[in-house]
Amino acid sequence: MAWRAALRSKAVIPGLLSCSSHGRLCASPTFITQRNNSTSPKIKVDFDQTTGVAVMHMQSPPVNSLSLDFLTEFCISLEKLEMDKGCRGLIITSNQPKVFSAGLDILEMYGKSPEHCGEFWKVVQEMWLKLYGSNMVTIAAISGSSPAGGCLLSMTCDYRIMADNPRYTIGLNETQLGIVAPFWFKETMVNTVGHRNTEVALQLGLLYKPAEALKIGLVDQLVPEDQVFTVATQTMTKWLTIPEHARQITKSMMRNPTIDKLRTNREADIQNFVSFITKESIQKSLRMYMEMLKQRKA
Amino acid sequence: MAWRAALRSKAVIPGLLSCSSHGRLCASPTFITQRNNSTSPKIKVDFDQTTGVAVMHMQSPPVNSLSLDFLTEFCISLEKLEMDKGCRGLIITSNQPKVFSAGLDILEMYGKSPEHCGEFWKVVQEMWLKLYGSNMVTIAAISGSSPAGGCLLSMTCDYRIMADNPRYTIGLNETQLGIVAPFWFKETMVNTVGHRNTEVALQLGLLYKPAEALKIGLVDQLVPEDQVFTVATQTMTKWLTIPEHARQITKSMMRNPTIDKLRTNREADIQNFVSFITKESIQKSLRMYMEMLKQRKA
Amino acid sequence: MAWRAALRSKAVIPGLLSCSSHGRLCASPTFITQRNNSTSPKIKVDFDQTTGVAVMHMQSPPVNSLSLDFLTEFCISLEKLEMDKGCRGLIITSNQPKVFSAGLDILEMYGKSPEHCGEFWKVVQEMWLKLYGSNMVTIAAISGSSPAGGCLLSMTCDYRIMADNPRYTIGLNETQLGIVAPFWFKETMVNTVGHRNTEVALQLGLLYKPAEALKIGLVDQLVPEDQVFTVATQTMTKWLTIPEHARQITKSMMRNPTIDKLRTNREADIQNFVSFITKESIQKSLRMYMEMLKQRKA
């Protein structure tokens, strides 16, 4: 099985959650304030009315961390596209080199008030709810590594095309950091790669190389790095030939049972997350992890 | 994954539902009346008392469309065999060249009263309920293409042997016609090929070539075209060596949760189907589809 | 699919349940009494405090039958290790040649009172509940054949390493004896190899050769016979690098839904088992099976 290879390889080097900053500034409150006030969009949206296809280019340096701001912008963009009847397909990709998205931004969870953590978690939920249940055809053009929340974002799309570069990895590696993927991350993964693959992947926090990810079905297709976006566009064209209403109802039938589980448990899920993440032991893990990231960058 | 190949190949040419008639007569009410009065059996049943194995030869030209008459006859034959203690195995095959069954008969859904559509849907349910829960060992000897309802019929058996001819295809391609496979078609497919394969197969309405179908587990075995029935018979012999009572209880344990979902929701499922199929937009899709079929035959 | 090969091969020779004695003594009540009074431990437990890893060597000749005594000892040992905070990993292996465990001991079910059968079944449940929900990392070092209850024991661990010897087999072959695997055996198998593989495996009572077992995911890794234990130890070392608390919560999240189904239905499950196993027809099957075993040994 591919995850044995993943376990043997260096792919398991923790790289799971991300820190939305460069090197030493990582935990600087000043920086965070600046970041929050940033007016440059973290996502560039191109919508081609002739094809009905929108593209979200994630462009939040250095690694497209899923911060509160990023996710808020993501949800607003997604909702706009969803409400535009002319928009039938969405390709999500990254403008940052070597990375699709490095996942949830640790700075939103480290040293923050329970209120802040709760607000953050709510928008993580919102992103998933909107994207997993989108009426549009959604394709992830995974142009680089995609750990943790980046992997969730990918799995939440309808189809995943990944750059065939063995230096990139993808997986829900939260456990490696002492964090637990919540039940709806888990269910999304079970729906994608089955129960047993998920059991091992989540217990070990495995990051898979592209070939291994393809083998267990975590991605659908590997292509040379410079063709990821082109193939995503071609694939979209094929999907858009399918009668739309029937495809949408079918998608709902497959995904609504999972969506409903979170929708009816959002508050409890937020409480769970907040009480877990604000624990002293978990905060300590996050701090050590960020220090490790800093040292690797230095 | 096999369905990518399926999407690329010409296998996706719509061929999903079928029309129980030749060329131009397709939508003729006169023809339908004649058909209803037909006394020639649409299914030939051979039962060998020495082996305990019955064979249903589907012989309804041209493509074994699952019409109201066909399915009624199917259910009556199945119930007779089920009640015969000496009958322990059932092989379902086709006497028509190149096709196992082309699926539900569009003529039962096009231009018909809600009452007729409801009556038709009830017998589709009945076929599935009886066959998926049969105490007999059931083997589909898939001697040709098997789209839509033909694929459902195959998946409802215990084991599927298909002719290894790349011109044949199998799959639930309803979406291609703008129709939605109901939840119990979906669950039967999930039970056969898993959640992710089903999600893609149903969203795109994929028809798989035999090699692709084998790869995802939609069929269990490929054999040369002239050996399908022989191998089905040999396989049946092996299955019949298993202690019967234990096998039957085991089968129930695996399948009853799915069966119960329909059994407790039959009326609602009929209402859903009738209100969907009688929509003007869906009727228009059916008409266009039948016209396309006529042109292909012309 | 691997189970077709299994069906074709001689792997299906019934070998499913076991008889905890040598040849002719098999059904001797005297022998059973002696056995119950035996003071030599059926399981040797080695616990290395420096590594935090315990090893259970099953050493109940000839085939590590899961008798009432054996399972009671197993549960007590497991509970002790579970309560020892220093014990973080458990490897289960066999000291008997050619066999991991031959499964539930028929002598506990044949010619016994309903009370005895119920008491026996309760400890079978207990073994599964404790092991499937263990906080420790659990690895099965499958050094030989592992039919029926031996397969259940293996599947209940977190990871399965099997000796790559084609003369060994593994599977839930209860149906071959006329017995039905209970729902929680079934669910454990579905969680391991998926719905369709389980449906066929349980209906036919298939025993898989190592290569086939690997193919469907019934075991995770094959290694040369003399390296099973070494590789298990190395694998354990890797698993123990994972942050423990996060891994445990993740494991619970994956397994608790299945565990809860039995926990809330233990009494009904015992009643089901007792009323089934004490049926005259089933007792007759057991007797015939034991006689067949004796003849094979003679």
Automatic annotation (TrEMBL), chains A, B, C:
CDD domains: crotonase-like
UniProt cross-references to Gene3D superfamilies, sorted A to Z: 2-enoyl-CoA Hydratase, Chain A, domain 1, 6.10.250.170
SUPFAM superfamilies in the cross-refs: ClpP/crotonase
Keyword DNA-binding: no
Domain of life per record: Eukaryota
GO molecular function, one term: isomerase activity
Annotated Pfam families: ECH_1
Annotated keywords: Isomerase
Isomerase among keywords: yes
Family: Belongs to the enoyl-CoA hydratase/isomerase family.
Name of this chain's protein: Dodecenoyl-CoA isomerase
Species, as recorded: Ilyodon furcidens
Species classification: Eukaryota, Metazoa, Chordata, Craniata, Vertebrata
Gene that specifies this protein: ECI1
